[in-house]
Amino acid sequence: MPGSQRKGPPPPSDPETGIWRGRPIARRFTSPDGMTILVGKSAADNDILSLKLGQPGDFWLHIASGPGSHVIVRNPDKLDRLPRPTQQMAAGLAARYSKAKAGGKVAVHLATCADIGKPRGYAAGKVTLRRSKTVQAEPVDLSEEVS
Predict the structure, then answer these.
(1) Residues 68-81: pLDDT tens digits?
(2) Of 21, 60, 81, 133, which one's alpha carbon is 20 to 30 angstroms from that of 3?
(3) 100 pLDDT exceeds 80?
(4) CB contact at 8 A, 73 and 49
């Protein structure tokens, strides 16, 4: 019967490349330490990136005030903290993909995905932090990497 075909399973997701159900939701970069950095493309994509693709031990960054992309640093080795070059690059990307990109040095929150929450009714892209630290960063301008 036309139109009554069952839908199959959703296309696969790939947290390493920022793919959610077959759709790219993030820009992908590789840090100087070889770690994968994902930068959300929209408020809705930020939610998926931070709350569905991000694993509890992955690192999460966002500028401290104002709208901007969520940044996830994949952490398959379960490091306690980011290597400094990776932290600087990821914080710089959080600054670059924000409304503060022309403002020079900005404060950036750094947490793990385990410390991110989203209360019911919050707008797309808005989350709460249970705990975080703040680092300073200047926006960086890097070309996207294709892997």
Answers:
(1) 899 999 999 999 99
(2) 21
(3) no
(4) no
